[in-house]
Design brief:
- By secondary structure, the chain is of the alpha+beta class.
- 34% of the residues lie in helices and 25% in strands.
- It has nine helices and twelve strands.
- It has an eight-stranded mixed sheet with strand order 4-3-2-6-5-1-11-12, covered by helices on one side. It has a four-stranded antiparallel sheet with strand order 7-8-9-10.
- Helix 2 packs antiparallel against helix 3, helix 3 runs antiparallel to helix 4 and helix 8 (215-224) packs antiparallel against helix 9 (229-241).
- The protein starts with a strand and ends with a strand.
- It binds aspartic acid.
- Aspartic acid is lined by residues 8-9, 61, 154-155, 173, 175-176, 185-187, 204-207.
């Protein structure tokens, strides 16, 4: 059993020791809880659980404390992929909900599995998700000072391998911050989040670069074709360099390999493959 989580890229990690320590502590706690949960739950359930914990923590750019789009609204995107059934589900640009990953979890049972905007919100309300305002005073202040782009917070993600050998991946984001309203993030596409029975990948970084590279789906396909997870990541990141792509990934393969890679410094992550490791 293995689990790896990420908290996106975070430029403040480079300079602000206090925030870095807070993020390390948060990731440490979430990965420990997720690993404990995984002992008695499937990979899919564990991914929903871990990503929900990260969405509830305002240190990260998902759920509470998400980045604000250029019209002053927060729109959340999240997706989930079950490697066992190879089903993908997600919500794109949903407003006023607390845990978009849980809505993705409910959608996976439906024929129509990716919903956007008002349709996603309608589904959420019908399925027990009450009104929730994810804007924190800190985010609002930053927005008003137009500082978001300099101080990007991180998207969140989780990949888990359960005791039955099944893999799942989940990713949740508030987007880039200051984007054109309703811009679509990679996080609720197969470029940003993908899994099958061979591997699972969750991405963070510049969504447009991740989509241009079809990053998560490409890495998983390479592992399915017999390449190791590390080599699949390395090859895909070489290709990313051709257009100076900005991305980071976490992944687990069916052989139990656990790996993370980033094109730029300061991606934050934590894993538990028997012992906890947290970014330094
Ligand atoms: N990938 C996300 C997006 O482009 C942002 C991030 O990962 O920080 O919406």
């Amino acid at each position: 059993m293995k689990v790896i989580i990420h908290g996106g890229f975070f430029s403040e990690s480079a300079t602000n020791q206090k925030t870095k320590k807070a993020k390390q502590a948060a990731l440490n706690a979430v990965v420990a809880e997720a690993f404990e949960y995984l002992q008695h739950h499937t990979a899919l359930e564990t991914v929903i659980y871990a990503v929900s914990l990260l969405e509830d923590n305002d240190l990260f750019n998902a759920g509470l404390g998400s980045q604000i789009q250029s019209d002053g609204k927060v729109r959340l995107s999240a997706s989930l992929m079950d490697g066992k059934s190879q089903k993908f589900s997600g919500v794109i640009n949903i407003e006023n909900v607390k845990n978009p990953i849980q809505i993705s979890g409910q959608l996976i049972a439906y024929d129509d599995r990716v919903l956007s905007g008002d349709g996603a919100l309608h589904f959420a309300r019908q399925h027990g998700h009450e009104y929730f305002d994810p804007i924190t005073s800190e985010r609002q202040e930053e927005f008003e000072m137009k500082r978001n782009q300099q101080e990007r917070k991180g998207t969140v993600g989780c990949v888990a391998l359960d005791g039955d050998g099944n893999i799942a991946a989940g990713t949740s984001t508030g987007g880039k911050g200051f984007e054109i309203p309703c811009r679509v993030s990679d996080s609720a596409t197969v470029a940003g989040n993908f899994a099958n029975k061979f591997a699972g990948i969750s991405c963070t970084g510049v969504g447009e670069d991740i989509v241009n590279a079809a990053l998560a789906a490409k890495i998983v396909t390479r592992v399915s074709d017999g390449i190791s997870l590390a080599d699949a990541c390395k090859k895909s990141f070489e290709e990313l360099k051709r257009f100076d792509g900005f991305a980071g990934v976490i992944g687990i393969s069916y052989t139990g390999d656990i790996f993370h890679m980033d094109s730029h410094p300061y991606m934050v992550w934590a894993s538990n493959d028997g012992e906890i490791r947290v970014f330094d």
